[in-house]
Design brief:
The protein contains 16 helices and twelve strands. The chain has 399 residues and is α/β, with parallel strands linked by helices. It has two domains: 261 residues, Rossmann fold (3-Layer(aba) Sandwich); 73 residues, formyl-coa transferase, domain 3 (2-Layer Sandwich).
Length: 399
């Protein structure tokens, strides 16, 4: 693997170079993982910049979302509508290990930056594309967004019971799940590249990835032919399925998951008949939380947390997003790290969560300003000062 990387990188992907043509959330989530793990990620942006620079809470120039999914990257602004701009990217592609993009296949092929174009200049290239739909299917050219993928993959259908209004999950779960799958795919292909010095084309389709994700526990009767029952995991569905229970001062999540959990909990409550009912292996937990709430509502959340800890039953108070920096576990491990961004001032970043004993993942650089590294990257590519000045003057490159 190439060794052109920032000198402070210590992650397991140190020495890997990634050409990142992705934008919005799915692709940048994936390439930030690669950057956190030590790769040198060169983010290609248009003169307008990644749209997520302006989406989310802003306290200055960059949004909270952009800051949180674009660290450990360098920004190069190139006008891909010009032949000179495309040539800059092609020169970059000669000496990188990975190309990542989430553009439509027809669009990137028209630019001359498709797989068949770039593999000619770099035969060992891992070329990884995030598509909306598997390109072998009839929906190959349809646009894909988090909302529509949530609806199409069955997730929205799970949020509504009979007669209820369907609702989206209040997080970009399709984008983020597919983004993590994309990062995994890149690393698997890099392993083969390291072993054989051969590249390959990798496709991660958002829709099919989320269908597979959903069916991990919800395949149900569809696992058999013919299906003996509908799809779905009964413990998570239906009237009386798992739900937080009310306390005297709020709600609490209690997971009486095993037979011994349920028996111990209801014996603690002094209702042996319920201990027998829900502590029997042959009985499920449907209706159990309705029964449990009749008892929990009479004492505080703190009281029930102490009971569950004593009985070794998983339980937690309900945390809001604003509560998370004060979560005792997160505070103890320093997940939220205050720092100073060169242009945005004081910010808080969420550090990498995966731990490597020999090659730590680190935050080496914060989210870049638009075109912050354009000049430096052109110098690395061998462009002379006069050539760089000419590209900048004609807005082929901005920096």
């Amino acid at each position: 693997m190439n060794s052109t990387n920032t000198p402070t990188s210590t992650g397991p992907l140190q020495g890997v170079r990634v050409l990142d043509l992705s934008a919005v959330v799915l692709g940048p989530i994936a390439t930030q993982v690669l950057g956190d793990y030590g790769a040198d990620v060169i983010k290609i942006e248009s003169r307008e910049g990644d749209v997520m620079r302006g989406n989310g809470t802003r306290n200055g120039g960059m949004s909270s979302i952009f800051l949180n999914i674009n660290r450990n990257k360098r920004s190069l602004v190139v006008d891909l509508k010009t032949p000179e701009g495309v040539e800059v990217v092609r020169r970059l592609a000669k000496d990188v290990d990975v190309v990542v993009h989430n553009m439509r296949i027809k669009a990137i092929n028209r630019l001359g930056l498709g797989y068949e174009d770039l593999v000619k200049v770099n035969p060992r290239l891992v070329y990884c594309v995030a598509t909306g739909f598997d390109q072998d299917g009839p929906d190959r050219d349809k646009p894909a967004f988090d909302d529509t993928i949530q609806a199409a993959c069955g997730l929205v259908g799970l949020t509504a019971g009979e007669g209820e209004t369907p609702a989206y999950v209040r997080t970009l779960i399709a984008d983020k799940t597919a983004g993590l799958a994309l990062a995994n795919a890149v690393m698997a292909a890099l392993y083969r590249q390291a072993k054989t010095d051969q590249g390959q084309y990798v496709e991660v389709p958002m829709f099919e990835t989320l269908v597979s994700f959903m069916l991990a526990e919800h395949l149900g009767g569809l696992a058999f032919d013919p299906p003996p029952a509908p799809a779905g995991y009964a413990r998570l569905l239906g009237q009386g399925a798992r739900t937080p229970v009310a306390t005297s001062d709020g709600h609490i999540a209690i997971l009486a998951y095993t037979v011994s959990h349920r028996r111990a909990l209801f014996e603690e409550l002094g209702v042996p008949e319920l201990a027998e009912k829900y502590g029997a292996k042959s009985n499920g937990t449907l209706g159990m939380y309705d029964e449990l709430s009749k008892f929990t509502r009479h004492h505080s959340t703190a009281y029930w947390l102490e009971v569950c800890e004593r009985l070794d039953i998983p339980a937690t108070r309900i945390y809001t997003l604003d509560d998370l920096p004060r979560h005792p576990q997160l505070a103890a491990i320093g997940l939220f790290q205050p720092t100073v961004h060169p242009t945005e001032g004081k910010i808080v970043t969420v550090r990498p969560t995966t731990k490597f004993s020999a090659t730590p993942a680190t935050v080496r650089s914060l989210a870049p300003t638009l075109g912050e590294h354009s000049r430096a990257i052109l110098c690395e590519l061998g462009y002379a000062d006069a050539q760089i000045a000419d590209l900048l003057e004609r807005n082929v490159v901005v920096g």
